[in-house]
Design a protein that fits this description.
- With 171 residues, the protein is mostly helical.
- The protein is 99% helix and 0% strand.
- It contains one helix and no strands.
- The chain starts with a helix and ends with a helix.
């Protein structure tokens, strides 16, 4: 009986020990599982965080790139605008210069025309003066000839009268 009880106690003790060990194993397994899950969550969290940071960096990079491109476009736009304005100023300057030159040519042309007209008037005036002098000379010559003829007629008449007187005296 005692031996049976002792044996029963041992068996029970072994069962208890086994049960305790099993329980301990299960608890430890749960702890290990929890620890593993926690570790996995942390690793996943770090991966998620890294992925989020990487994604954020890419988005920021794209924003930075877009901002840089936009800035470059604005600067280029300003350069293009400035170049266009400069080109427009040059073209306008050329137009102004051409207009000034054209105006100067017209003024010079008017001066040249006026000078030519003045010169023509002077030449015409000289011609008119020469013509007047020539005409005066002709009139004077005619007057001189008339005077000479008149003088010759008078001399002739006087000669005729003298001849008549001489003839009368002879008679």
């Amino acid at each position: 009986m005692n031996a049976m009880l002792e044996s029963a106690r041992r068996i029970q003790g072994m069962k208890d020990t086994n049960a305790m060990l099993e329980s301990a194993r299960q608890i430890q397994g749960m702890k290990d599982t929890n620890a593993m899950l926690e570790s996995a969550r942390r690793i996943q969290g770090m991966k998620d965080t890294n992925a989020m940071l990487e994604s954020a960096r890419r988005i920021q990079g794209m924003k930075d790139t877009n901002a840089m491109l936009e800035s470059a476009r604005r600067i280029q736009g300003m350069k293009d605008t400035n170049a266009m304005l400069e080109s427009a100023r040059r073209i306008q300057g050329m137009k102004d210069t051409n207009a000034m030159l054209e105006s100067a040519r017209r003024i010079q042309g008017m001066k040249d025309t006026n000078a030519m007209l003045e010169s023509a008037r002077r030449i015409q005036g000289m011609k008119d003066t020469n013509a007047m002098l020539e005409s005066a000379r002709r009139i004077q010559r005619m007057k001189d000839m008339d005077a000479m003829l008149e003088s010759a007629r008078r001399i002739q008449e006087m000669k005729g009268m003298n001849a008549m007187f001489k003839s009368a005296k002879r008679t």
